[in-house]
Amino acid sequence: MAFELSIVGATGAVGRTMVEVLENSGLPVSKLNLYASGSSRGKILLFRGGDIPVKDLSSEILGDAVLLAVDPAISKNIRKKYKSSGKYFIDNSSAFRMDDDTPLVIPSINGDSIPSKPGFISNPNCSTIEMLLALFPIRQKYGLKKIIVTTLQSVSGSGNAAVDALSNETLAYLQKGELDAKFYDVPISFNVIPQIGDLLADGSCTEEEKMYKETVKIFQNNDIQVLATTLRVPTFFSHFESITLSCSKPPKMPEVRSLIMNDPYLKLMEDPSGNLYPTPLSSTGTDLVEVGRLRISQFDPHELSMVISADNLRIGAATNAVRILAKISQEGYL
Ligand code: 2RA
Asked: Is 241 in the pocket of ligand 1 (CB under 6 A)?
């Protein structure tokens, strides 16, 4: 059945990608409403051949379902205001991800946690979504005890302003030899920043904490260990991850490859002659998690290493949100 949809935060990096992903989703959207903060008011975005003017965030949010691509504080205000509105909200912020009453959903993994009654559903963090999509078939076959992951995250994870800052810092350095930080505390151009989010008392940062806690919630496994190190690197789009797993049963190599090849959400990027592997450039603009450099440890047959790359704005945000919406629509909940 056709439904009316709204996207709040429609002109940000994730919001614009939501409009793009929706365009070709085939979902029966009878009307799309777009909202953004004051500075974007009056902008026009194109959707399925029609011009849609962007309304101010303070306007009444219409529709049967709403995709939120805004800061946690704004999501919290919206939740308060629309508590009994009878709408589904799919929230890309971290505001409610750890709340017991809010499902945290990757549809192909735990889509059955989507409730038949309207309310809030959280979209997981970008680096968690691509990691769990890649590990899910391996976990199903061999069991998973521990994940050691290092992420190399592009600047688009921090929004459009960070994308502009990387361009401007790079140009200023190449043209004038100046390298000043234009978005993060230190320059990101020609650099790596080993902290994403706030630092916590134990020395980890909030991005690393999210990868652990969200994995526990989505896999419903309190015993799983996730040791994450999250790095911001000077790439524009896609997050790259280097992962080593400890499985309950020893993974077997030809079988691991065929599990990945047969998974509709993954793309095996390997070639015996080399030179084919996941990269931020090849994964950008796609809806598949690229997986490659598969290796069983020479020290412990339970350990498997790999690298992955996925478009953080699509797989890590917009595509997952639209897949949640598609599941709600297919189940007939709208
Ligand atoms: C980042 N994880 O890349 C964030 C965005 N959700 O900074």
From this structure: no
